[in-house]
Design a protein that fits this description.
Elements: H1 5-31, E1 57-66, E2 75-77, E3 80-87, E4 89-94, E5 99-103, E6 107-109, E7 116-119, E8 126-135, E9 141-143, H2 149-152, E10 162-164, E11 186-188, E12 197-199
Antiparallel strand pairs: 1-8, 2-9, 3-6, 3-8, 4-5, 4-7, 9-11, 10-12
Length: about 200
């Protein structure tokens, strides 16, 4: 190696490193973008969020698909949770008559310990990603027996309505009634990858 070789190699190496750094900065500038989707101390109906439960924290993330024209069972959540609608549209109803309509890209901070249901009146499946801040070993979603006609004006669940998972197959009966059994009060304990919804007339 002569006296010119080492400086040339060092210069080339420096140029390469600088170029690599510029390329990374350029790529980071194109890719990295942070948007606050939701941040609040209140549930979507305006009520303040409750305190976090005691115990070992456990995060559950569910991808829920509600087919066009279908609705979820009447249910409550015992923990704070929030979701982002990835596709379609959805209307959330409470027994008191409050409603929240969301469309693709919208977020919501769900109700805690308040009966409600989601209804897809659109022509495409509604797909929502929901994050639950729960406690290990505790349920996150509790299905209720029926809708209250006097409060909601909605029809009650019929005994012939059954539970399915998001793929449309009978749900694991360790967490829900076997297919063919009437809908009854159940508790969904995370971290199941499925969310139960009811199919059938009146649901």
């Amino acid at each position: 190696m002569n006296r010119f070789t080492l400086p040339v190699l060092l210069a080339l190496g420096l140029i390469a490193l600088v170029g690599f750094g510029v390329a990374l900065a350029h790529e980071d500038g194109d890719v990295l973008k942070v948007t606050t989707v939701a941040k609040s101390t209140k549930q979507w109906d305006g009520a303040p969020l409750p305190a976090y439960p005691e115990g070992q924290p456990e995060i559950t993330i569910l991808r829920i698909i509600i087919p066009a024209g279908e609705r979820t069972a009447l249910h409550t959540h015992s923990v704070i949770n929030a979701g982002v609608l990835l596709k379609g549209e959805l209307v959330v109803h409470t027994e008191e008559g409050k409603t929240l309509k969301i469309k693709e890209g919208d977020s919501l901070i769900e109700l805690v310990d308040k009966p409600h249901w989601g209804q897809n009146d659109g022509k495409v499946d509604a797909e929502i990603l929901v994050f639950y801040a729960g406690v290990e070993g505790k349920g996150i979603t509790h299905l209720l027996d029926e809708h209250d006609e006097q409060k909601s004006g909605e029809p009650k669940a019929e005994s012939g309505s059954y539970l399915y998972d998001t793929s449309g197959l009978p749900y694991d009966n360790s967490l829900a009634p076997p297919i063919g059994s009437p809908l009854s009060r159940q508790t969904l304990s995370g971290p199941s990858p499925f969310f139960l919804f009811c199919r059938g007339r009146g649901l």
